[in-house]
Amino acid sequence: MSTTSPVQLTHGHHHGHDVGERLYIHKHSSVHALASHLKILAVLSFILIVVATEISNWLAFISYFLLIVTAVLVAKINLITVFKRALIEIPFVFFAILMPFFGTGTVVEVGPFKLYEAGLLAGASIVAKGTLGVLSAVLLSTTTTAREILRGLERLKLPKVMVQIATFMLRYVNVISDEMERMKVARESRGFEATGIKHWKVLATAAGALFIRSYERGERVHLSMLSRGYEGQLPHEEPKHNNAKSWSIALSLPVSAALILLISNTLTITIGK
Amino acid sequence: MNSQPTLQIEDLAFAYPDGNQALYGVNLSINKGERVALLGPNGAGKTTLVMHLNGIHPTGHGRVMVAGKIVDPSDKVGIKEIRSKVGIVFQDPDDQLFMPTVGEDVAFGPYNMGARGVELEQIVDEALKLVGMADFKERPPHHLSFGQRRRVAVATVLAMKPEILVLDEPSSNLDPASRRELADILRSLDITIVMVTHDLPYAFELCERSVILSGGIIVADGETSKILKDENLLKTHRLELPVGFSL
To answer: What is the pTM of this model?
Structure first.
């Protein structure tokens, strides 16, 4: 039952597998083609290496950053897009920016500000490590569909229950947000506008109703699962065969990071001598 | 053995744990290949009855037999077989389509029944083809129209190769075209169908036989055209043909 759509509002092409994805951007690249569990492993170990690096080793951090930029370029993703998405970290690093203003110990004067050295270093460390972590996570979510990430986690032996819960969340987040939207429209159609604290009671009641509805839906879904023979297992695919090539592409990110850490550490020690 | 009914319900009574009794002794026998409409007003016990057909509700009193086997939820092995034989299409397709993509959802049932790999793929493709949704295999259900979702819901059940297809209000919320498309699909299937509905024209269109469930018992059982012509009978049980509709 295909219908012709006279106006195509979405840009680019897709093959159906990225419909409804909020973060995934479909491109043909070696990063996109990697099996998701390899990508998750690569990103995770990269973040671990970054976190393990001393903040004073600024050369390493610049190299990490260049490494991520290279990975983004290899994935054929627009750098601006990645940076824009990384802005999500701002509320989290907000306190890190305040850290230099409070503390004890050595004081550094920067223009009109008196900053504490320890706080400055700690703040810089959080911002730098946080940004690199977020950038790599953004790269993962931009090149991997949410569904694939779940499959990857499953292959990495994350407990089944957690994967199942996340799978259902992925499926029902839209259903529930639509329901919430309809309730909002229904409220507003009857002249309700949430302007202040006195309206919280109405909103709380609506949230309660939504919870009950979702809970009941959960029960109905469970019944329909039982009707089709559910016994605690969701179908899962056998992992794709991973050749040495895809392993080496995936591992190039953390391995390069580890090399950077190693080399820069040796350099600092040598210079220190 | 072939003469035994596909579905046999004997003196089935059921009360919910809160004491609310929904069924008061239902007797019904349906033969292979029949298409039967189960009519009744809201609250007649239709959905409760459906939940007994594959053992979601344990039988309180009486018995339900599918292809000669007693439905008994406490028999773990037997109930699995029953559930593969009785396919229930629920009213809200969003309750039934819980997997991230259409294809995975259709695969859910046969996977639980032990199908894997190429065999599983074939079953999924075949079921989607039967309902004209083969092109939507990779799509998330959320992005389909309501009618398309209902058709996929039918496919998820057909994939289990059931002996009986039970549909709970199949025509609800469908636009006229989707309604006709679904009717065409149901008519094309070579399978026993029990259709729970209060959409009388739809029952007339699809089912040669109708039963009326009212107040927890079967109050009428016969040819759909005869039942729908009996104005008094319909009226007594809060059923009405749409204005302007006559047989």
So the answer is: 0.80
